[in-house]
Amino acid sequence: ALLGIVCMAGTCQAKVSRLSVKGTKVVNASGKTVQLKGVSTHGIAWFPQYVNKKQFASWKKFGANTVRLALYSDKAAGFDKSLYKKVDEGVKYATQLGMYVIIDWHILSDGNPKTNQKQATAFFTRMAKKYAKQTNVIYEICNEPNGSVTWEKDIKPYAKKMYQVIRKYDKKGIIIVGTPNWSQDVDVVAKSPLKGVENVMYALHFYAATHTDWLRSKVTTALSAGLPIYVSEFSICDSSGSGRIDTSSAAKWMKLIRKYKLPYAAWNVSNKAETSSLIKSSCSKTGTIKSSDLSKTGKWLVKEFKK
Ligand code: IDC
Q1: Rounded distance from Cα 206 to ligand 1 centre (Å)
Q2: What sign does the CA torsion over 303, 279, 57, 92 have?
Q3: Of all atoms in ligand 1, which is nearest to the CA of residue 233?
Q4: Lowest CB count within 10 Å: 74, 137, 223, 269, which one?
Q5: Strand 5-8 relative to strand 11-14: parallel, antiparallel, unpaired?
C-alpha cells in the first residue's frame, strides 16, 4: 500500500515506509515486521532490457515488493561505470512504483571483495550520496565472497570500510553484507558480527537442489545467535543457476523463510535458457508480462508470493 506521494526537484514518487532492522527482523516505520519479497535482475550488463518500469510493474502485480539490481563488479562480467546510469534507472522505476530496491555490487569471479574495493568505494559513495533521502534503497555491498577469502581477514574489514562509506551520506538505509563461501557461512559470521552498526543484515544465498538441510541448519544456528539474515539471492534449481528443480527442498526453504519472515529475492529476471530464469525462453517480451510468460520457476515463485 502506498503511504503517499513525495515530490522532490519536480519528480513525484510513491513513498514507502522507511525500514530498519530490529533483532533479526525487518520492520517498517511503525515497528511492524515486514516480509520483503522480491526478484533480482540478471547481470544488468547482459540483460539491461529488463530494467524498465513495465517489467517491474508486472512483478509488483505478481506480488513482489522489492527489486534487486545486480551490477557485476568484475570487468570480465561486464562491469563498466556507464552502468551506473542503468542502476539509476532501476532505482527510479522501483521508486515510482513504490517498491524497495537493492543496489547489488555483484562480486563473483572477483571472489575477494578487497580486489575491487577502490571501485566499490567510488560506487557506494556515489549511490549513497544520491539516494540518502530515499526510504526504499537497500545496499548490498558484496554479493558472494568466495575462494580463499575469510570473514576476519577479508570480508569484515571490507564491510567496516563500506559501512563508513555509505553511512557518511545515508545514515539509515539497510546494508546487506555478503558472507564467506558464496554467502553461505552465516554461522561463521554469527560468532563475530560487525559491532556498533545499525541496519545491517547478512546475506544467505541458496539454490535448493544443491543446498539442503546442512545449509538450512547454518541459517537456524545464525538466527538463534541473533544474526539478521537477508536471502538476497536464491533459486530452486542447482547452484549453476540451471539443472533440475527441487520442489521438496524449495518447500523446506520457504517454510523457513516464512517462519522467520526472512526477506528474499529470487534470481533472475530474464528469459535466458537456464532453469533459474523467471521468464520463459520462448517469451521475447521485456515490458509487461503475464503469468503465461513465466517459466516453471517463475510460476512457482508467483505462487509463493501469494502465500
Ligand atoms: C549466473 C547466471 C548465469 C551466468 C553466471 C556467470 O545465472 O547466466 O552465466 O552467473 O556470471 C550465484 C551468483 C549468480 C549466478 C548464480 C547461478 O550470484 O551471479 O548467476 N549463482 O550460478 N551464486 C550462486 C548461484
Answers
A1: 12
A2: positive
A3: 18
A4: 74
A5: antiparallel
- Would you mind telling me the total number of residues written for the chain in this entry? 307
pTM above 0.90, yes or no: yes
For 140-175, the pLDDT digits (tens) are: 999 999 999 999 999 999 999 999 999 999 999 999
Is 304 a catalytic site residue? no
Q: What integer pLDDT is reported at residue 15 of this predicted model?
A: 76
The grid coordinates listed for 230 are 537477508
Q: Active-site residue 140, yes or no?
A: no
Sequence letter at residue 279: I
Kindly report the backbone phi and psi dihedral angles of residue 141, in degrees, each rounded to the nearest multiple of 5, phi listed first: -85, -20
Q: Amino acid identity, residue 214?
A: W
In terms of Cβ atoms closer than 10 Å to its own Cβ (0-12, 13-18, 19+), residue 1 is exposed
Cell of 119: 571501485
Distance 147 CA to ligand 1 centre (A): 15
How many other CB atoms sit within 10 Å of the CB of residue 100?
26
Question: How far does residue 242's CA lie from ligand 1's centre (Å)?
Answer: 9
Separation between Cα atoms, residue 277 and residue 223, nearest integer Å: 29
Q: For the chain, what is the total number of helices (H) and then of strands (E)?
A: 9, 12
How do residues 18-52 score in pLDDT, each as one tens digit? Answer: 999 999 999 999 999 999 999 999 999 999 999 99
- pLDDT of 255-277, one tens digit each? 999 999 999 999 999 999 999 99
| DSSP 8-class letter at 155 | I
Collapsing DSSP to helix, strand or coil, 301 comes out as: helix
C-alpha cell at 204: 544467505
Among the listed residues 89, 140, 144, 274, the single catalytic one is 144
